[in-house]
Amino acid sequence: MFVPLARYTASARQERAFACSKAQHSRRVSMSTGKTVLYSAPNSRGAMVEWYIRSIKAPVEVVNLDMGKGEHKSPEFLRVNPFGKVPALEETGPEPWSLNESGAILYYLAEKYDRNFPKDAHQRAQILQWILFANATLAQTAFMESLREKQLPGLLAALDQHFSKHTFAVGETFTVADVALGSYLGYIPMFFPGKVDMTPYSHLNAYMERVKERQAAASA
Fold this sequence. Notes:
Number of strands: 4
Domain GST C-terminal: 120-220
Number of helices: 9
Order of helices and strands: HEHEHEEHHHHHH
Low-confidence stretches: 1-32
Pfam families: GST_C_2, GST_N
Strand order of the largest sheet: 2-1-3-4
Protein name: Similar to glutathione S-transferase
Organism: Cyanidioschyzon merolae (strain NIES-3377 / 10D) (Unicellular red alga)
Number of domains: 2
Domain GST N-terminal: 33-117
Largest sheet: 4 strands, mixed
Strand content: 5-15%
CATH class of the largest domain: Mainly Alpha
């Protein structure tokens, strides 16, 4: 069949462009190969990040450091986190980078790997609010004795009221906010047995049970 030269030339150009595009895509894929590593340790805040990684099945390698042997102070790890603290996240590849602080790591993993992470800006802001609340307001109030005695009951009462109306931190769906909030709430009876009376907060206790069920399912 006769093909006009102009059509043939255009077709050839399209084929070459397509082949070039495929080659460029292949190079980009190969260049982007690397891995994401979470540095954690037993009985650290890294545990909540490990739980979230399992929950969303994120392709993240977990490396538990031996704090007793000072592995968190090794030159290799200090290149990841100069503060020598866990958790810390490292991404290798052509543009390696690292991230510290459990709240920041949780939010980043949610944006990158959680298929159910909301697209709505208001919902994302609420999730970030709860992560910050858990890591700052709640943690500080629970772990500082003077604040624990004076301010923690008020915080727990407000949370109890919130969970009288909501199943999870942000509405009716489990999110990364519940990983942070549920973890810090779980620390209270763990670290301060007999010092904080949780019995008046029935709605909050029910929420904590729901979070425990999620955690158990992720670990199964």
